[in-house]
Amino acid sequence: MTHQRRKRKKTRVNDTAQARALASLKVVLLSRALRTQWKSLDKIERGERLRVLAGLGCSTRGLEHALGQSATSIRRHIELACLPPGFRDAIKAGASAKKILARKAVANRARQSLKRVLADEDTGNLSDEVADLITRFCRAEEQPLETPVLKTEISRFLGSVAAYLSTFEVSGRRFPRIPKRLGITALFKATCPEVVADQFWMEHQAEWLANIIWIRSPERPIWERAIQKAKALAKTSEPDKSIADLYAERELRLSLRHLSPARRRY
After folding, report:
1. DSSP string for 133-202
2. CA 222 → CA 27, 87, 150, 253, distances in Å?
3. Residue ranges per domain, the chain?
4. What does the DSSP assignment read for 94-135?
């Protein structure tokens, strides 16, 4: 209830700011001129004028109504206007704006990945987080019907996980984002691969864990450090159960698997 009240209050504040901006004579004249001249302007000129209106307090939603353009189009034009001069000149000369934005997105991802790798070298926080996920997965803490990975199998199992991660790296595999606020259980559930006929249990689990790691940290230096940390903590990955009990649980899980509907591949 409190969250809903806060959301409504924030919405009212945004609406009030937008109304004040649109009440300004300068904003009215600029928005009318842009709407009239929209088709005669190139993408960069539109974006530059949109940036001026945004600087005067106009929101994307307000501009959407005032200009008769979609919010996505408005954001894209503003993004084009924010590009370095070389890119803007190329777009004016006829280069594909879509391809240039794609190149910019790739460069941004590479820059963010480098920052994450350097930060982990300093603090180790990211690889610690991934190592904790690995340990929890191996202990089956979030998967009550799954069998924990035995301590004697950890090294071989994580070797298979690393092989899957290397394959993802080569193929440039992409996963939809799963917000951390949804929790680890949601992360585990969303990344479970489809069960393939005659697939060995260990291989299915290795692919599953690789999916989890790839979403949280696709950078090789980070997940390699995380795997090494998880191996060092392998003694905590096996609960206080006998080997006979663990194998009995595995047999139960395998007997119940065919009763479950086929899992969706993500």
Report:
1. HHHHHHTTTT-TTSPPPPGGGHHHHHHHHHHHHHHHHHHT-------GGGHHHHHHHHTPPPPPTT--HH
2. 48, 33, 24, 32
3. 2-97, 113-257
4. T--HHHHHHHHHHHHHHHHHHHHHHHHHHH-HHHHHHHHHHH
Token pair belonging to 262: 């086929």
Q: What is the pLDDT of residues 184-214, one digit of tens each?
A: 888 888 888 887 777 788 888 899 999 999 9
Distance between CA atoms of residues 25 and 41, nearest Å:
22
For the chain, the first-to-last Cα distance in angstroms comes to 33
Residue 247 has pLDDT above 60, yes or no: yes
User: Which residue's structure tokens are 């019907």?
Assistant: 145
**Other beta carbons less than 10 A from residue 48's beta carbon:** 17
Q: What is the C-alpha to C-alpha distance for residues 243 and 256, in angstroms, rounded to an integer?
A: 20
Residue 36: pLDDT over 70: yes
Q: What confidence tier does 111 reach under pLDDT thresholds 50, 70, 90?
A: confident
> Which token pair is 4?
């809903």
Residues 6 or more apart whose CB falls under 8 angstroms from that of 184 comprise 133, 136, 142
pLDDT tops 50 at residue 252:
yes
The mean pLDDT value of the chain amounts to 79
Residue 248: what pLDDT?
A: 67
**Are residues 212 and 187 in contact, defined by beta-carbon separation less than 8 angstroms?**
yes
Options 1.10.10, 1.20.120, 2.40.33, 2.60.120; which CATH number does 2-97 get? 1.10.10
